[in-house]
Design a protein that fits this description.
Elements (H helix, E strand, L loop, with lengths): L11 E13 L5 E15 L4 E5 L6 H9 L6 E6 L2 E2 L4 H8 L3 E4 L13 H11 L5 H14 L16 H13 L5 E5 L7 H18 L2 E6 L2 H7 L2 E6 L2 E7 H6 L4 H8 L40 H5 L4 E5 L2 E4 L5
Parallel strand pairs: 3-8, 3-9, 6-7, 7-8
Antiparallel strand pairs: 1-2, 1-4, 4-5, 9-10, 10-12, 11-12
Helix pairs in contact: 3-4, 4-5, 5-6
GO biological process, one term: transmembrane transport
Protein name: Peptide/nickel transport system ATP-binding protein/oligopeptide transport system ATP-binding protein
GO molecular function, one term: ATP hydrolysis activity
């Protein structure tokens, strides 16, 4: 008798998440909706990094903000440890704030310029009523060392640091209350290449030490591939392809994923590869195209693409694609 294989349970299961922003007339009447996130589903497993990648304006950051409760979802389910956060969002998000944290894209604007670093890092501990005043100071000193900064930085202000150092402070602030999930919203896009690699290495080291789970949001697929276990490719509010990192990088199946990867420069200039140039601009989320949202720019689109919405299908183990033309 064959032993039963139990499917691994996700730490966070995002089901059919939607976030629509109303467009109102000067008199306050809603006339349209911007469909920023339009039926997004994926799973986050404990200890992994899930990369969410796509062009600017595709809804990546809104997805992260909606999961964190910074934007109220229009529809969908957020199952954290099998509990639907959206059943009672006000109560749930307050209760789970300690388990969910965020590292923002611009580290300078996310730090209060009038507060010293010690005060900024102590604030989450005060909010969650963690430890005494002296113990909080010790915890701040410890986390500063963990992210590669010195104890002296406790008394400095944000403007006294470089971009990379400020992002280390942002990571320290997210980490200090020992969260389970950290949503990283373009955490290295504002940094130069050498600093990017330092921050990514730091995040990987901290992930191993604290058993963290990351949702890593970025527009640069070459950055995402270095840190992610799985990647979801997003276009106009939808995930069009999802697979384990090496599988997606070596065998992209959706035409949009292929175009994104063709734009990644190769380390050896002598190696030539064909660049896929997409025609036109991303359609407006106010009025997305019928059928497959990508058909207006797709180089291989057929009649069915404009008529029917493609169904998500598994083309290889753990490799999912939403495309009529992929078998």
């Amino acid at each position: 008798m064959q032993p039963q294989v139990t499917e691994k349970k996700p730490l966070l299961n995002v089901k059919g998440l939607k976030k629509y922003f109303p467009v109102k007339t000067p008199l306050g009447r809603t006339v349209e909706h911007v469909k920023a996130v339009n039926d997004v589903s994926f799973k986050l497993f404990e200890g992994e990094t899930y990369g969410l990648v796509g062009e600017s304006g595709c809804g990546k950051s809104t997805t992260g903000r909606t999961i964190l409760g910074l934007d109220n979802p229009t529809e969908g389910e957020l199952l954290y440890k099998d509990q639907n956060i959206l059943d009672d969002p006000k109560k749930s998000f307050v209760k789970l704030k300690k388990d969910f944290q965020m590292v923002f894209q611009d580290p300078f604007s996310s730090l209060n310029p009038r507060q010293r670093i010690g005060s900024i890092l102590e604030e989450p501990l005060i909010i969650h009523n963690i430890a005494s005043k002296q113990k909080r100071m010790d915890m701040v000193m410890e986390i500063l060392h963990k992210v590669g900064l010195s104890s002296d930085n406790y008394y400095h202000y944000p403007h006294e640091f470089s971009g990379g150092q400020r992002q280390r402070i942002g990571i320290a602030r997210a980490l200090i209350i020992n969260p389970k999930i950290i949503i990283c919203d373009e955490p290295v896009s504002a940094l130069d290449v050498s600093t990017q690699s330092q921050i990514i290495n730091l995040m990987q080291e901290l992930q191993k030490e604290y058993k963290l789970t990351y949702l890593f949001i970025a527009h640069d697929i070459s950055v995402v591939r270095h840190i992610s276990d799985r990647i979801g490719v997003m276009y106009l509010g939808k995930i069009v392809e999802e697979a384990e990192t090496e599988d997606l990088i070596s065998n992209p199946s959706h035409p949009y994923s292929q175009a994104l990867l063709s734009a990644v420069p190769l380390p050896e200039p002598s190696i030539k590869k064909e660049r896929i140039i997409l025609k036109g601009d991303i359609p407006s989320p106010l009025n997305p195209p019928s059928g497959c949202f990508f058909h207006t720019r797709c180089p291989i689109a057929e009649d069915i693409c404009s008529e029917k919405v493609p169904v998500r299908k598994e083309i290889r183990p753990n490799h999912f694609v939403s495309c009529h033309l992929v078998d």
